[in-house]
Please model this.
Amino acid sequence: MITVTHMKATFIPAVGTAQVVELDDTNIGNAIRQLVGGWFDCVGGEDFTVYVHDEGMLLGQTPNVFASILTNRPLVGDVVILGNRNPQGEYDGEDYDVPADLCADEFLLTASMLNADNELGQGAREALAQDVQRVLDRGPVILPMTDDEFFAYMEGK
Model:
């Protein structure tokens, strides 16, 4: 017998209404690809991971104002947010239900207001588009560092 379980996620379109979605966790990667429109990259937060189209900037996708504010970096396109802490509160590289505060009604309403198809949302997207263009103009950044510096960077020190 096959048991299908579901994982709670928050879906925030670049333009439109944020919502809580249930993903089939037997093939979570496929579910994320369907929502973001292709292969994806992840941006980690303290207790969450944001999944975003990996070529969204190159494809000229619409800036996602709320996701950019949430992650403190310019993001484009639709995003999916999942939790990254197990029930014991540890990071183990797996996905979990999105944290309760990232699927609360107030959170969804704020995301929806900032990404709305109205004057406020359009103005915010235009401002963010300038940041996206700066990232594209800069190109890849290569930082020389020792192994010790690299491991300290990876550990967030």
User: Anything to note?
Assistant: The two ends are 46 Å apart (CA to CA).
